[in-house]
Amino acid sequence: xxxxxxxxxxxxxxxxxxxxxxxxxxxxxxxxxxxxxxxxxxxxxxxxxxxxxxxxxxxxxxxxxxxxxxxxxxxxxxxxxxxxxxxxxxxxxxxxxxxxxxxxxxxxxxxxxxxxxxxxxxxxxxxxxxxxxxxxxxxxxxxxxxxxxxxxxxxxxxxxxxxxxxxxxxxxxxxxxxxxxxxxxxxxxxxxxxxxxxxxxxxxxxxxxxxxxxxxxxxxxxxxxxxxxxxxxxxxxxxxxxxxxxxxxxxxxxxxxxxxxxxxxxxxxxxxxxxxxxxxxxxxxxxxxxxxxxxxxxxxxxxxxxxxxxxxxxxxxxxxxxxxxxxxxxxxxxxxxxxxxxxxxxxxxxxxxxxxxxxxxxxxxxxxxxxxxxxxxxxxxxxxxxxxxxxxxxxxxxxxxxxxxxxxxxxxxxxxxxxxxxxxxxxxxxxxxxxxxxxxxxxxxxxxxxxxxxxxxxxxxxxxxxxxxxxxxxxxxxx
Length: 479
Ligand code: BES
Ligand code: ZN
Ligand code: ZN
Prior knowledge:
Layout: E1 3-6, E2 19-24, E3 31-35, E4 41-46, H1 55-71, E5 76-79, H2 87-90, H3 94-109, E6 127-130, H4 136-160, H5 168-179, E7 185-189, H6 191-196, H7 200-206, E8 214-221, H8 228-232, E9 239-243, E10 245-249, H9 269-284, E11 289-299, E12 311-313, E13 319-321, H10 329-344, E14 348-353, H11 358-363, E15 368-372, H12 375-388, E16 392-394, E17 412-413, H13 424-433, E18 442-446, H14 468-478
Parallel strand pairs: 1-6, 2-4, 2-5, 5-6, 9-11, 9-14, 10-11, 13-17, 14-18, 15-16
Antiparallel strand pairs: 3-4, 7-8, 8-11, 12-13, 15-18
Bound molecules: ligand BES and zinc ion (2 copies).
């Protein structure tokens, strides 16, 4: 674990054991490690011309510092980074810069070591000392960033854990653990309660597994729980956050090919992101009402598994022909959306899910996809994506796409009835739109492209912990 602490006003005042990171205007690939006569170490790094530093390069620059410190096995580093006379950062303001600094130091410091036996031996980065003069608001922003970054790292821990160690019931424990010591309320529906609630799609997806489905609800009433009267008057409505919680996706009887299955322990990344987001919201004590819903199930193979061609009845009453057992995420989300609307009448609903491989085909691995009919909500999410670093980019959610899901034997099918793979990401969103609330704004975020980090992210390999930063900002600003 790397400690991230506030230090003296200038780098020069930092104690000798800290290697001082000096940013220059050289090219970002340029770097030198210098040992001074007094024994102090200086690491000079090119950051490019200040006028060219963008919000995006600022984030990766912070991460690059941590990465370099790890590569050089530096145990203690001192940095002094603010808006640094960079016009594009100055436009965002000091508070944004301090929060972003803290978030990205946390994200970059993260390593997943749960299954490594040789924990000692390799030197680890023990401490980052953050120097500079900060006013109380900047300090507050910095500590907010630390909380948000830590929450995203907990999300990564949950997603990086193997499927056998993160079954639906173990995910309920992870949720409770993450919220321990906060005033958030964690409620769990057992598989018999799921049955009683008529969540037939969640039940169908999980019935092949030994560890049966669970439905996790995390409530945060930071603005006060609405009284019966307030509820009736539509006051204090919560934001609903729904996260796909497939703890392992083998594909079911339509089994995934080898090479496409082993990473499916991360198929609960949406659910894990909601756990992290709720932890951050609770730790920050946001005066907002938010409820997270995580339909948790393992898409497994056994004699009890759902079959291709089976028809299941959703909580909403719609019948669904399961044409493909690997299109399971949309099924569990559908019931979660119905449940959220029925029992909590939210003011806005967002879902995040590693829903389709097709989203990677459409967008590559730099951005998640967002689909909504609400233009204002779309713009907010795209803007907050840019602001937070959890990028999202729109795809259409037009009614024209609905026709391909009209089933012959049931109301709708879970994939296109002609088995076309065209527009697969939109198809997933379109399926969900059949279950979306009629009047409440809703957006679907397909986070499969950002499920795991890529080298240019300058983060540890594995789960990326998205879109925790985006969701926390969304709740802060629009909750
Ligand atoms: N969990 C997968 C999607 C996925 C793929 C996430 C790669 C992250 C990386 C999802 O449940 C799935 O299998 N989707 C199918 C849908 C298809 C059957 C319509 C897919 O993407 O192939
Ligand atoms: Zn699947
Ligand atoms: Zn899946």
